[in-house]
């Protein structure tokens, strides 16, 4: 893949992306009514690892907590018992765990009992079915599907512990056009620190979203390439999605650092209507980018905004779905920036996340094209 460095800074586009679904995307925003608590999530970013929190009601300052129900997790299912930093595999029932080399092509070789390897060049992943199995992708083995997160108030916490999970618990709502996952938030002692300083691993979120295909006619005039539109169309389209994401997240500033283009760019040509069937065709190569967005937490001022590292991959499905208009399939990884007090640790996290994103994007396969019918 070739790399292209676009202009460094891109303001939010001011126009939201067209969606295939009728419900609003999983994102930050919206006002809380006086009579209820509204879920606060993110369409494609985690605001300071606050993905699993409720906004406080404007009239009743009820402190909310998050309880995770591990529907598909057991302590006995630990992938590497006794190994530091390794916990139970939050694997879906029937899923097998795959070990893959982070810099190597996906071998598609699943094993029942993998040998543990803590080498930094290796990433532990599993194949995850999306949208009922119509799409598959490799994601970290410790991911949590946010649909299985329970949101409950602390004022009923003791009561809930005595009586167990009640019908009053609220599950996080995710639109039918999205799949949203987060990694576990791990806190541990920094090795070699006599004071036992605790180092927090902030949550990484992963969102897969099915959107209506962005037409060139929908692009703002200032984003249209002035020369050789066909050659520049891939980076123009992914920039539009990145900027639209910044708009949805109320980002003050969005900067794309680099863009990686696929060798085969036929997906960016003129759409030809294709009737989706279970075997319509092969999954195209994605165009991807990495950048930063500056986002304010909830109702905080712009001065309190913080950076979120964002990786975005785009698959253009020309003529597939939306009455022949086509579909844009978007994958985003979002990693909140850690404080400057842990630069070496966070640099390793960035490198690891980048390799993980590349592998996940390369592993995505469309199994049943009728998903887009």
Automatic annotation (TrEMBL):
Residue spans of biased composition, Polar residues class: 30-39
Top-level lineage group: Eukaryota
Ranges of Basic residues composition bias in the record: 9-22
Native source organism of the sequence: Puccinia sorghi
Family: Belongs to the MOG1 family.
Any Pfam family matching the protein: Mog1
Organism ancestry: Eukaryota, Fungi, Dikarya, Basidiomycota, Pucciniomycotina
InterPro entries linked: Mog1, Mog1/PsbP_a/b/a-sand
GO CC terms in record: nucleus
Protein name per the record: Uncharacterized protein
Positions of region (Disordered): 1-39
Biological process terms in GO annotation: protein import into nucleus
GO molecular function: guanyl-nucleotide exchange factor activity; small GTPase binding
Record keywords: Protein transport, Transport
């Amino acid at each position: 893949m070739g790399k292209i460095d676009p202009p460094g800074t891109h303001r939010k586009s001011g126009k939201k992306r067209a969606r295939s679904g009728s419900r609003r995307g999983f994102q930050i925003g919206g006002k809380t009514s006086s009579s209820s608590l509204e879920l606060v999530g993110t369409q494609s970013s985690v605001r300071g690892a606050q993905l699993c929190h409720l906004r406080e009601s404007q009239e009743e300052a009820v402190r909310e907590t998050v309880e995770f129900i591990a529907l598909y997790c057991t302590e006995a299912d630990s992938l590497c018992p006794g190994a530091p930093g390794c916990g139970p595999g939050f694997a879906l029932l029937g899923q097998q765990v795959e070990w893959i080399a982070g810099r190597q092509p996906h071998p598609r070789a699943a094993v029942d009992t993998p040998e543990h390897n803590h080498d930094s060049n290796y990433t532990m992943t599993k194949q995850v079915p999306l949208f009922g199995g119509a799409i598959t992708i490799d994601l970290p083995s410790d991911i949590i599907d946010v649909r299985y997160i329970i949101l409950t108030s602390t004022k009923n916490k003791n009561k809930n512990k005595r009586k167990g999970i009640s019908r009053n618990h609220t599950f996080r709502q995710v639109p039918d056009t999205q799949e949203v996952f987060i990694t576990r938030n791990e806190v541990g002692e920094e090795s070699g620190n006599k004071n036992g300083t605790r180092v927090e691993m902030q949550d990484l979120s992963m969102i897969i979203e099915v959107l209506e295909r962005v037409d060139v006619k929908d692009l703002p005039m200032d984003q249209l390439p002035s020369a050789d539109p066909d050659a520049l169309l891939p980076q123009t389209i992914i920039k539009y999605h990145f900027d639209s994401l910044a708009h949805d997240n109320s980002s003050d500033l969005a900067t794309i650092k680099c863009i990686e283009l696929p060798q085969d760019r036929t997906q960016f040509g003129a759409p030809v209507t294709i009737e989706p069937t279970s075997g319509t065709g092969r999954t195209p190569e994605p165009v991807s980018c990495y950048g930063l967005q500056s986002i304010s937490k909830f109702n905080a001022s712009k001065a309190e905004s913080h950076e979120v590292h964002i990786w975005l991959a785009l698959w253009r499905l020309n003529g597939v779905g939306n009455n022949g208009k086509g579909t844009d399939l978007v994958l985003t990884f979002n990693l909140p920036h850690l404080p400057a007090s842990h630069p070496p640790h966070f640099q390793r996290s960035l490198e690891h996340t980048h390799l993980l994103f590349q592998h996940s994007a390369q592993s995505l396969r469309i199994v049943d094209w009728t998903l887009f019918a």
